[in-house]
Amino acid sequence: MTAELVRGQNHPLSQTRVEIRVSAGTPVLALASACDDAGRLAGPESVAHPGARGLPGLEVPGTVAGEHRFAVDLDAVAPAVHRLGVVLVLPPGGPVRFGAVPASYVAVADPEGAELAGYTLTGLDAETAVVALELYRRQGAWKVRAVGQGYAGGLGALLADAGLGGPAATALADVATGLVPSGDITLASLPTAAPPTIAHGVRAPQDAAAGTAPAPPPPPPEPLPGADVPYPGTPGAAPGPASADTIGGPPTIDYAHPRRRRTTSEPPEPGPRAVPSPEADRPPAPVAGDASGWSLDERLYNQVWGMFEDLARSVAAYRSACDFAESRMDRELDEALSDPRHRLGGSGNAARDAARARHDELVAQARAVLDRDLAQLVAESEVVEPALPASYARWANPVWHGHAVPEEAPLALRLGDLHLPERPDLRIPMLVRAPLERGLWIDNGRTGSEAAMTMDTDRLRRAAMDMAVAHAVRLLAVHPGDRFSVHVIDAAGAGAASLAPLVAAGVLAGPPAAGAAGVTRTLEALTRRVDLVQMAVRAGAPEDLPPDVDLADQLLIVHDFPHGFDDRSVTRLRYLADEGPAVGVHLLMVADRDEASAYGPLLDPLWRSLMRLSPVPDNHLADPWVGHAWTFEPDLPPPGSRVLEQTLERIAAHRRDARP
Amino acid sequence: MTVNMTKGQAISLQKQDGGTLTAVRMGLGWQAAKRRGLFGSRTREIDLDASAVLFADKQPVDVVFFRHLQSDDGSVRHTGDNLVGGAGQGGDDESILVDLQRVPVHIDQIVFTVNSFTGQTFQEVQNAFCRIVDETNGQELARYTLDGGGQYTAQIMAKVSRVGGGWQMTALGNPANGRTFQDLMPSILPHL
Q1: Per-residue confidence (pLDDT) for residue A570, from 0 to 100
Q2: Where is the composition biased (Low complexity) (chain A) (predicted)?
Q3: Residue A452 to residue A468: CA distance in whole angstroms
Q4: Could B105 and A366 be called an inter-chain contact, meaning their C-beta atoms sit closer than 8 Å?
């Protein structure tokens, strides 16, 4: 199994004999650089290139090719070498920038051929040389890090950045790229007038290699205006300026790696950022996707839950310190009061002041620690939130504007935001795994919370129904076209205004069911589906289902419960709530518990089995670690935004195209 | 350079280069009971448990043990209960990790204890040890050998306490009797 790395991420290597595999979209040179623990090259002999292919423990290929494989024996690497860099260079005469060729993929494999870690080099533009991976020593073991640091100035700038003197770097670069036969390299033949390179920033100056005549062709003077379009995709002529620059390159710019299927639920690759410093002492800059998982979605999901847990625990530490400070002050004040020595003279006041000072000091310390933690989490949130895929993203996130119907079901869904009173602006996405294990219940009752009490009934009901519609649109949008259908029961037609966009777009399985007959019919159909699918699953014969059974996941929105429900329908609804989730039938109730009070305690298990959400901010959710009361806030499209309608249009268009 | 600590000895948890420690781990290891021929399943397994009790002003405020594997603030973590012990080859069978920078400010002492949950005394346990490791570099700071320790079922190992801006560790090595840390509370309190 391969760990797909993102830029800056590292991965431990359990083996010391590994194979480096390079798969580039265009013929490239693969080089290796051996640096010390500060990332500096000892000299030109520390670079393995086609002119001098061997370094202790490895030998790089001598040819220019689209695919490279070479073995590395990490045990044989010289002890002074702490970092082995895998460098890809575009040879002269081919494409002049990595941005013009398909993204390369570099992997580390074990001797049996199984890939341990891989990294796709995305986001490159005018670079002609790039440090793709780095194998480095960490506490006696080796690890691999995805670096992806490119140099517009070519290999010369790359080597100069690694501490090789400017002329030596340029000369070595020329030898390595085959411009000068390797026998000719002597110090005497180095051009003395070579300009000093000033390549210590993140990117080398673009003209770093321009001073020497045989250097690789200079890169384009500035980034192309169209180069940051994430997914041009359409075949045909490249945008104007690109065709001028990509001599001999493929006609279109395709950033996708040929072997990697890109799902549209994936967020765009994060923009260029400084490679994290390898020193462990500095607090690392937060990176989106900095968690374990097989895919970026899974990593982001785990990262969000990690942030949730960290915030819960940091606040728990702060609150327990404050509680302790409070109880200690109370005790000391009591003691000061009851101490007979304090009755005469002013010593009592001094004792009370001392107790208060001790309290304030401890609270201030706790606050400082909390602020440090919160600052870290806020920084992480700022990085993570824009990187979220549509199913995890707020409606305000730009990812929704470029959203297309995905090919795979989502890993998780965002139901809203969570925050704590200590830092109300730090919002944690409330993510639940999809498919939903429990039904949802949007509480439109006014007795549910204080915020609901202050709203009038009509507005609250409208808000609850709008929220339900937003969830339905999100579910429809993040599932593949034919894998999700939505049914609505709106017995009295009271939710018609909110449901209008869904009805107008024609994405519902049928018109909203009205009246007692409609309720019965819809519930009957879904009950039959649950029953049949359960039977088929139990018998192990899912292919024997009647052809009219819809195998897509179903969402049933129930509005106005229990209006239009008879006893039989209530029993059916409870059956769906209990048995449905296991076979892909999910319930979304928009209801006021008080209106169903006529049923007495009979319905309590139904309410308890659903996850309660509120259309207004309400602190009814507890975290699983320390049990804080978190304030839930629904996530609705920003006022005036047409993101819901646009998303619905896209879903409807996709469905029209799917069945011609 | 391991310090084989003696009872009551205090060492400051300062790194050799002057920086304070940021993360320590208490490791506990012991050798599994020997198999007894045909009816090996009847062998009485030995279950030792490591616990950490967090004190603020001499009041216990949190505890990390096999039923509560992480302190509420997340700074102290138990890696999980081991019911049978290891081969006694020097590896830790149970570990408690303390992220000293994250410990809430009001907690000023953390006491580590070892209990024999299955009731064997330390005389019957082979190769039992307990150690404190600097988690950042794996260096062993202190080690205690438990076996041959007499007719006791528990030991109050060590305490880590705040001194100035840093932390210092004091080896306690006080034998006691008890099944879990709760039975030890009366014996712990005099050491605070």
Answers
A1: 93
A2: 225-242
A3: 17
A4: yes
A316: chain B residues, CB-CB within 8 Å: 72-74
Query: What's the rounded Cα separation, in Å, for the pair A15 and A113?
Result: 12
Distance in angstroms (rounded) separating the CA atoms of residues B180 and A351: 39
Distance between CA B55 and CA A163 in Å, rounded?
52
Segments in A25-67 forming alpha helices (H): none
Would you say the CATH fold of A412-658 matches that of A3-245? no
A582 has pLDDT over 60:
yes
Count CB pairs under 8 A between chains A and B.
50
Exposure string of A11-42, with b = 16+ CB inside 10 Å and e = fewer, is bebeeeebbbbbbbbbbbbbbbbbbbeebebe
User: Of all residues in chain A, what percent carry a pLDDT higher than 70?
Assistant: 83
What average pLDDT score do residues A601-629 get?
A: 91
Handedness of CA A308, A314, A318, A323 (dihedral sign): positive
Contact status of A324 with chain B (Cβ, < 8 Å): yes
Please choose, from the candidates A244, A188, A193, the residue with its C-alpha nearest in 3D space to the C-alpha of residue A221: A244
Partners of A626 on chain B (C-beta within 8 Å) are 72
User: Residue A263 has what pLDDT?
Assistant: 41
Q: Contact at 8 Å (CB) between B5 and B130? A: no
pLDDT digits (tens, 9 = 90+) for A475-513: 999 999 788 999 999 988 888 999 999 999 988 988 999
Q: Can you tell me the ipTM of this complex? A: 0.85
Task: Specify which residues A335 forms β-bridges with.
Answer: none
What are the residue boundaries of the structural domains of chain A, listed by start? 3-245, 412-658
C-alpha distances out from residue A262 to A79, A256, A258, A408, A496, Å: 40, 7, 10, 10, 38
- Mean pLDDT of the region A62-68: 83
Is A383 an interface residue toward B (CB < 8 Å)? Answer: no
Determine phi and psi for A476, rounding to 5 degrees. -65, -40
Partners of A419 in the β-ladder: A631
Q: pLDDT tens-digit profile of A194-222? A: 333 333 333 333 333 333 333 344 443 34
State how far Cα B169 lies from the chain centre: 12
The 10s digit of each residue's pLDDT in A121-170 is 877 778 888 888 888 888 788 888 888 888 888 888 888 888 777 777 77
pLDDT tens per residue, range A445-476: 887 777 788 888 888 999 999 999 999 999 99
Q: Quick check: B123 and B102 in contact, CB under 8 A?
A: no
Task: Look at A362 and B62 and tell me if their CB atoms are within 8 Å.
Answer: no
- Neighbouring residues of A93: CB distance < 8 A, sequence distance ≥ 6: A248
Query: Which of B57, B73, B137 comes nearest A317 by C-beta?
Result: B73
Q: How far apart are CA A86 and CA A33, in angstroms?
A: 7
The residue whose two tokens read 């009485």 is B44
Give contacts of A 613-632 with B, CB under 8 A: 625-626
B165 and A CB contact within 8 Å = no
* Structural domains of chain B, with CATH: 3-33+40-191 (2.60.60.30)
CATH architecture classification, A3-245: Sandwich (2.60)
Q: Do you know the residue count of chain B?
A: 192
Rounded CA separation A359/A338 (Å): 19
B102 touches chain A (CB under 8 A): yes
Strands B109-116 and B10-12: unpaired
What rounded mean pLDDT belongs to chain A? 80
> H or E stretch including A305?
helix A296-338
CB contact under 8 A, A320 and B106: yes
Check: CB of residue A230 under 8 Å from CB of residue A268.
yes
Report residue A264's pLDDT band, with 50, 70 and 90 as the boundaries: very low
Q: Is the pLDDT of residue A1 over 80?
A: no
- The CATH number given to A412-658 is 3.40.50.300
